[in-house]
Design a protein that fits this description.
Elements lengths: L2 H13 L2 H14 L4 E5 L2 E7 L5 H10 L5 E4 L1 H6 L9 E4 L5 H7 L4 H4 L9 E2 L2 H12 L5 E7 L10 E3 H11 L3 E8 L8 E8 L4 E9 L7 E7 L2 H5 L7 H15 L1 E7 L2 H4 L2 H12 L4 H8 L9 H10 L3 E5 L3 H9 L3 E6 L10 H11 L5 H7 L6
């Protein structure tokens, strides 16, 4: 191979997969509050998060698309707005709404999010609108976007242009691309022999942690827990959930059993992010259950992915697991990824007045294996 060909190959590797690069840059732009240009079906569309929808910004965006700006909402948000028959993203003309209505309909203004209803005529969103919604969720923003068509001359705008296809493919392309970046022994209160292994990758290139407790034998089924990060429960001992209890019980159980692997996954708020989790908590304080609150914000039942968790386990050398969970989707996800799930151990936290509705909703809405009467018996004696 010639030196020039080698250099060209090295340069190409520096910039990586163009499709992934497009999507990752677009995610960063939307999180920063800047609009992006979506190329879809031979046309160009301006797309922005509805989280920044003040009157001045709406007027500027609408002017750029010739008065054709639309608010695009998810089927989940439409159900919360009294339109359960809508199975696809739908759009409303911003010119008929105004900034206050846009903020209420998009659930940015939580004071009006619950009781808001639709008055304007809905139209089916263009495929670019669906891609923009996907981009918003990848950016951990509210799933409500402002979209409008642009003329080709708009390429002179100082905005990133990204193909809608790149956004649509991003999750699948990134799902199992994780790599170990660091590791070190970390003695814990209930398990002194532990190693923390940090991976980077998956959606958003976030860092995921595997806590290897003891010395699990790869030749035998290993205890495994997929634990999604919960800042409020894991760190501060929130009484609204049972996450902290489950986390601490997991480590102690694995230590007593001689070993196990706890995957601590950066998927706060069932994959919606900490900001949206706090929005959901606000709605729960007003009487909604955890899934009703997420739906009111426009989210589906559960936005988490577990395929990259299977990739983490494989890199650690584990293919045969006994899963510590009450969630049937975690069992199904690891099985779909090709791991052998030979057993399941239930994992219990405490039951109390603050989390009983949350636990019942997980059982009734998401099919978690929870016997509420058994929780008092199984709950750990001391979980802070």
């Amino acid at each position: 191979m010639s030196r020039s060909a080698t250099t060209a190959g090295t340069i190409a590797s520096l910039f990586g997969d163009a499709t992934l690069t497009e999507a990752e840059r677009a995610i960063a732009e939307m999180r920063a509050g800047r609009p992006v240009i979506l190329a879809e079906g031979g046309r160009l569309f301006l797309a922005a998060s509805a989280e920044f929808a003040d009157a001045e910004r709406l007027a500027a965006l609408d002017a750029l698309v010739g008065g054709a700006l639309q608010l695009v909402l998810t089927p989940a948000r439409l159900r919360a707005l009294g339109r359960p028959e809508e199975a696809r993203p739908m759009a409303l003309p911003v010119s008929e709404l105004g900034s206050a209505r846009v903020r209420a309909l998009s659930a940015q203004d939580l004071s009006g999010a619950k009781g808001e209803t639709l008055g304007a005529e809905l139209v089916e969103a263009h495929a670019a609108g669906a891609a923009a919604l996907h981009l918003a969720t990848l950016a951990l923003m509210l799933p409500a976007v402002l979209v409008g068509p642009l003329a080709p001359a708009a390429l002179t705008l100082p905005a990133l242009t990204v193909r809608a296809e790149a956004i649509t493919r991003y999750g699948e392309d990134r799902a199992t691309r994780v790599e170990i970046v660091s590791r070190a022994p970390v003695p814990l209160l209930t398990a002194r022999n532990c190693e923390f292994v940090v991976f980077r990758g998956g959606e958003g290139m976030r860092e995921q942690v595997a806590v290897v407790v003891g010395t699990p034998d790869p030749a035998r089924p290993v205890l495994v827990r997929l634990h999604s990060a919960c800042l409020t429960g894991d760190l501060f001992g929130s009484l609204r959930c049972d996450c902290g209890d489950q986390l601490r019980t997991t480590v102690a159980t694995m230590a007593q059993a001689g070993g196990g692997v706890l995957l601590y996954l950066d998927q706060e708020g069932r994959g919606n992010g900490i900001a949206n989790k706090m929005r959901a908590y606000r709605l729960q304080s007003d009487g909604l259950d955890t899934y009703e609150a997420d739906e009111t914000l426009g989210f589906g039942l559960d936005a988490r992915r577990f395929d990259f968790a299977a990739a983490m386990l494989r890199q650690l050398g584990y293919e045969h697991v006994v899963l510590m969970t009450n969630n049937p989707e975690k069992i199904a996800a690891l099985s779909r990824a090709g791991l052998q799930v030979s057993g399941v151990e239930r994992l219990y936290g405490r039951r109390g007045a603050d989390n009983i509705r949350y636990l019942a909703a997980k059982r009734d809405r998401a099919g978690h294996f929870l016997d509420l009467d058994a929780l008092d018996h199984h709950a750990p004696a001391s979980c802070g």
